[in-house]
Amino acid sequence: MKEELSSKTRIRRSQKAIHDRLPRFNPPGLEKYLQEEKAETNKRGKEIIDHIEVTLQKLIIEELKREYGPQDSEWWILGIPKTVRTKVANLFEADDAKRGGKEYYFDLIDYRDIAVKNWSIFESLLAYGKAGNKDKRTSWMNFINEKRKIVAHSSSGMTLSIDDLNHLAEYKKWLENRVIGSKEDSSVNR
After folding, report:
1. Which of the four pLDDT bands, split at 50, 70 and 90, describes residue 116?
2. Which of 22, 84, 128, 176 is deepest in the core (most CB within 10 A)?
3. Does residue 11 lie within any of the structural domains?
4. pLDDT recorded at residue 104
5. CB 116 within 8 A of CB 145
C-alpha cells in the first residue's frame, strides 16, 4: 500500500510539473490532489513551527532565569531587549494578562532578538552551523518566522514547499538535540 501511495504521489507531482509549464494540461483529479497536498503541507508545517516556538520559549525563559534570577526584576529586565520588553509589556497590559505571565506574549521572532542580546548564554544552544556571526547563526529563526507567516495565514493562498517542510523538520530535530544536550549538561554541572 505504501509503495502504491508513493507511486501515486510521484505521478501527481510529475503531472503538476507539466501543468506548471503547460497550464492547459490538467488531468482529472490533479487540482483536488494539489489542494489536499497544500493543506497537508501547511498543516504539518504549522505543527512543526508550533513545536519549535514552544521549545524556544521554554528554553530561553529557563536559561534567562537560571542566568539572571527568577524575578521579573532580574530575567525580564536584564535578559530581554528593551524594544521587546516594551512591545510585550504593551500586549500584556492590553490583554489584561489573560494569558498569564509576560513570557506568554512574545512573538516567535522575539526569541532571536533575545538570543542575540544574550549571545554568551545562547550561542552554544541556538547557533546553527559552524561559522558566521550571531546574526548569521540565528538566521534559521528568521526562516522559521517567514514560514510561520505562510501557515498562520491560510487565506493568503501560499503553501509551504516540500523543501521548506523538510528544512523545518531538520531545524526541529536539530533544536530538540540541542535541548536534550543542554539538559544533560545541566544535570552533570549540578
Report:
1. very high
2. 84
3. no
4. 95
5. no
Please tell me the total count of domains within the chain: 1
Tell me whether residue 20 is in a domain: no
Tens of pLDDT, residue by residue over 26-42, are 999 888 877 777 768 88
What domain range includes position 172? 39-188
- What pLDDT score does 183 carry? 63
Q: How far apart are the first and last CA of the chain?
A: 51
Per-residue pLDDT tens over the stretch 71-108: 989 999 999 999 999 999 999 999 999 999 999 999 99
Closest CA to 144 of 39, 50, 64: 50
Asked whether the predicted pLDDT for residue 186 surpasses 70, the reply is no
- Cα dihedral across residues 103, 109, 114, 120: positive or negative: positive
pTM recorded for the entire structure: 0.79
63 belongs to a structural domain: yes
Residue 51 and residue 59: Cα distance in Å, rounded? 12
